Amino acid sequence: MNSVIPFLPLLLGALAAIFLRGWLRNLIMIAAPILGAINLMGMDHGVFWSLEFMGYALEPVKVDKLSLMFGYLFHLASLIAVIYALHVKDTVQHVAGLAYAASAVGAVFAGDLLTLFIFWELLALTSVFLIWARRTDRAYSSGVRYLIIQVLSGVLLLVGLLIFAQVNNSLLFTQIGLQHEGIAQIGAWLIFFGFGIKCAFPFMHNWLTDAYPEATPSGTIFLASFTTKVAVYAFARGFPGEEILVWIGVTMACFPIFFAVIENDLRRVLAYSLINQIGFMIVGIGIGTAIALNGAVAHAFNDVIFKGLLMMTMGAVLHMTGKINGSELGGLYKSMPKTTVLCIVGAASISAFPLFSGFVSKSMIMAAAVAEGYDVVWLLLLFAAAGVFHHAGIKIPYFAFFAHDSGIRTTEPPKNMLVAMTLAAVACVVLGTFPAQTVYALLPWEHSYQPYDVTHVLTQLQLLFFSALAFVWLNLKNMYPPELPSTNLDADWFYRKLAPAVVKRVASTTYGAYVSVENSVILSVKRMVQNSYDAEAGEPKGYFAKLWPTETMVVWVAILLVVYLLFYYLH
Question: Rounded to an integer, what distance in angstroms lies between the CA atom of residue 504 and that of residue 510?
Fold first, then answer.
């Protein structure tokens, strides 16, 4: 076996980026993901590296079809993201981007939970610099919140794996499931929620919509590619077939639609769309059949490419205009025609148009839902598919490049950005047109599936046609939510509005009670002083102010001593 550790080429590329500059650094950064992908081609299935730690067998590198599929995906995403960022003269972004990618690759090849935890935390520590690299107050604040949530996810994973190690005397990362007894059940749920935070489960998702739009244009491409997809991989390996995931996933697929259609920041629209697409993947994992699991990981593969393409086009708009709100954009097709076309390719892919990548993976999940009797889930996924066409397939290109003419005149982005977007667009078409020779060839579970039959194609075309018709009609009737300067809150209302209000009220009530008690004590002390001192006579007054003879005090001391001795001897 002539291969090296899978994450090593990307890690060495990150280290080289610290010291190198200019064309040599660019060359090394491009070579790192290419050499890393070639290295994967020479790896045999099985345990690549094993060791023993504190009596536990660890497998830091284990290779199988599932890890290889995500390994190839992350190297392809790294290559596209690196090319897109070549014009950036910021060492922090280059180093953090490659180190982040290396952490993602290390996570999907981890054969034990301890190694997974290490890379799980490295994902958080490396990715946060891509947010802070924008160097704005909002970016710093979002980065801190992002890091806190990501570290919390790691803490849950750590506690869960320690419980599992204690109960099972093993740290190997195999199927975990939720059916356990005793304390093992608690460990399984802790790991489940640790994965869920990184996967942006409902009410655990605000770190994504908060932080991703605040990152740099090139940093967002890395962010959209790795963290959530590592979590999808972890669920596919650890919790396949858990029915609760079906309902969590369908909720994820549906609820972001309502926020995305009213959101003004177009990168935040794509962040909500990212949660929507992860919902489809989680549904597939929850169904747990071969076709459903293949559909989930295939959709993860395709989503990285087409979501990356859409993020790149919006990053190009932000880079060239300094604006990203839909209310401030429009008419850019006149000065950015190439970017417009590339954006439309990404929009067609995420909307699952036939011959584009989204169609060949999303249809697998839909077919699996019908086959397993999840009719309600299938209907909700149809609604979610129509919704994503509205907010990502139509809204993004329409309000950025068409709609009203904002009067902004600029040029196309730097050539490296166009090259990266073109590579992603070509991949979207190739993956959608030749799935059997591309993404299907990498699928981990054995199952044959033909996406291009009459039923699948006609159903999807009808859905897209009527969705487009609804958008046009709503627009003509001025009923479609307009793009307005606004700040929209969803689950973050709990900590942005409710929590401060509750804390303020509790603090106010507590302080009021403290002041009241303090005033009562002061008043009591004043009364006691007034009752025990005669201000006119200038001397103490009352019972305790009397002068007592010495012999009387001696008698009382003797009495107290006798009482004490009695208690002592009786005891």
Answer: 10
In angstroms, the Cα distances linking 342 to 199, 254, 349, 419, 570 are 28, 26, 11, 11, 96
3-state secondary structure of 322: coil
What percentage of the chain's residues is helix, strand, coil (to nearest 5)? 70, 5, 25
Rounded Cα distance between 201 and 252, Å, is 7
Q: Which of 226, 236, 229 is nearest to 174 (CA)?
A: 236
Report d(CA 307, CA 314) in Å as an integer: 11
CB 203 within 8 A of CB 255: no
Residue 481, exposed/middle/buried by CB under 10 A (0-12, 13-18, 19+)?
A: middle
In this structure, what token pair is assigned to residue 318?
Answer: 């932000």
Backbone torsions φ then ψ of 56, nearest 5 degrees: -110, 140
CA distances from 494 to 20, 90, 206 (A): 46, 36, 11
Question: Over the Cα atoms of the chain, what is R_g?
Answer: 31
Look at the alpha carbons of 326, 329, 334, 337 in this order and tell me if their dihedral is positive or negative. negative
For residues 87-106, average pLDDT: 96
- Residue 485's pLDDT band, with cuts at 50, 70 and 90, is low
Do the beta carbons of residue 265 and residue 219 sit within 8 Å? no
Amino acid at 157: L
Least confident range from 100-104, 165-169, 294-298, 468-472: namely 468-472
For residue 184 the two structure tokens come to 């093992």
CB atoms within 10 A of CB 550: 7
Task: Say if residue 1's pLDDT is above 60.
Answer: no
Mean pLDDT of 21-47: 94
pLDDT digits (tens, 9 = 90+) for 356-368: 999 999 999 999 9
Q: Average pLDDT, whole number, for the chain? A: 91
The verdict on pTM exceeding 0.70 is yes
Q: Could you tell me the sign of the dihedral formed by the alpha carbons of 368, 209, 265, 318, in that order?
A: negative
- Tally of CB atoms within 10 A around 320: 20
For residues 351 and 393, the answer to whether their CB atoms sit within 8 Å is yes
Amino acid residing at 395: K
Share of the chain above pLDDT 90, in %: 68
Centroid of chain to Cα 345: 25
* One-character DSSP codes across 197-257: HHTT-TTS-HHHHHHGGGS-HHHHHHHHHSHHHHHHHHHHHHSTT-HHHHHHHHHHHHHHH
Task: Report CA-CA distances (Å) from 329 to 240, 244, 306, 340, 476.
Answer: 43, 41, 22, 13, 20
Question: If DSSP codes are grouped into helix, strand and coil, which group holds residue 521?
Answer: helix
Burial class (CB in 10 A: 0-12, 13-18, 19+), 180: middle
For residue 505, the tally of other CB atoms under 10 A from its CB is 10
Give the max Cα distance, the chain: 116
The answer to whether residues 122 and 106 touch, using CB atoms and an 8 Å cutoff, is yes
The three-class DSSP label of residue 46 is: strand
- pLDDT, one tens digit per residue, over 205-235 is 999 999 999 999 999 999 999 999 999 999 9
Structure tokens at 374: 């999840």
User: Are the beta carbons of 297 and 444 closer than 8 angstroms?
Assistant: yes
